[in-house]
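Consider the tokenized backbone below.
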């Protein structure tokens, strides 16, 4: 069994104590707020899948990409704020939430191409991108290979090599609660509610070897990028976040206080302000 498959097995079986009594904000996993009513929503046919998406508001576009095993509804608080001044696009990544998947092996390049095809479907030439965890990695992939499609990338809780993952996540209660919630949400949202194990197995194969970008590759990035982490991130080593900020040209490092891997849920007001300050800065 690989380290990553062991991780998922351990977390899926973890006996969860109640988190309600946690004293620190970064130890909690709040439920997402209700999602605002979309101006447009539907399914885009991209790369052989049906990709769920929704669009809110008007203005310069910003694409929000969720993390692994999750879905777009985690962004409700961000949508409510950002859509006041921006056109906000959310979507469920392939196999996640309401989107379908194929038997094609998962890869960040494939997932990036899904989002580029979605932007084409929506006739959006260029956008800011806010990515959390896998979503941040997808943003970096697009910055590497299709910088012409991006204005800026706010990459929170991302890694650029597999050794950036903190082995302590194996026994972290908050992350275990997220894994548990993700399985329940999958059964409620997915068109294949009985295939969660197959889906997890498929994406786990990607996590075993990806991402794996060299310093030389990352040094070629020209898109303005914010490398963002909560100061108590359970999954990404702080030294890895610092490394990313040091090797991506011009990167801005943002450390969110009293927050973890799930900062968008724990500290939505501070998170939203950090996003706006970065993507709207001239």
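A designed sequence for it:
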């Amino acid at each position: 069994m690989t380290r990553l498959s062991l991780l998922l097995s351990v977390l899926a079986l973890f006996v969860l104590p109640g988190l309600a009594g946690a004293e620190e904000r970064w130890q909690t996993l709040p439920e997402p707020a209700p999602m605002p009513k979309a101006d447009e929503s539907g399914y885009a046919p991209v790369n052989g899948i049906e990709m769920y998406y929704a669009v809110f508001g008007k203005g310069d576009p910003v694409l929000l990409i969720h993390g692994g095993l999750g879905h777009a509804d985690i962004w409700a608080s961000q949508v409510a704020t950002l859509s006041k001044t921006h056109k906000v696009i959310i979507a469920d990544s392939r196999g996640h939430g309401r989107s379908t998947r194929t038997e094609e092996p998962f890869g960040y390049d494939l997932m990036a191409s899904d989002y580029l095809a979605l932007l084409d479907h929506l006739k959006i030439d260029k956008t800011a991108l806010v990515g959390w965890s896998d979503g941040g990695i997808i943003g970096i992939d697009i910055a590497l290979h299709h910088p012409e499609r991006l204005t800026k990338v706010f990459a929170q809780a991302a890694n650029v090599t597999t050794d950036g993952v903190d082995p302590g996540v194996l026994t972290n209660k908050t992350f275990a609660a997220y894994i548990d919630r993700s399985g329940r949400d999958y059964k409620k949202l997915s068109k294949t509610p009985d295939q969660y194990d197959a889906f997890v197995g498929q994406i786990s194969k990607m996590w075993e070897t990806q991402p794996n970008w060299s310093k030389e590759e990352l040094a070629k990035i020209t898109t303005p990028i914010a490398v963002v982490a909560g100061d108590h991130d359970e999954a990404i080593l702080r030294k890895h976040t610092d490394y990313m900020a040091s090797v991506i040209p011009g990167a801005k490092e943002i450390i969110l206080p009293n927050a973890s891997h799930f900062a968008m849920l724990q500290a939505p007001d501070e998170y939203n302000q950090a996003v706006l300050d970065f993507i709207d800065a001239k």
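The mean pLDDT is 94.
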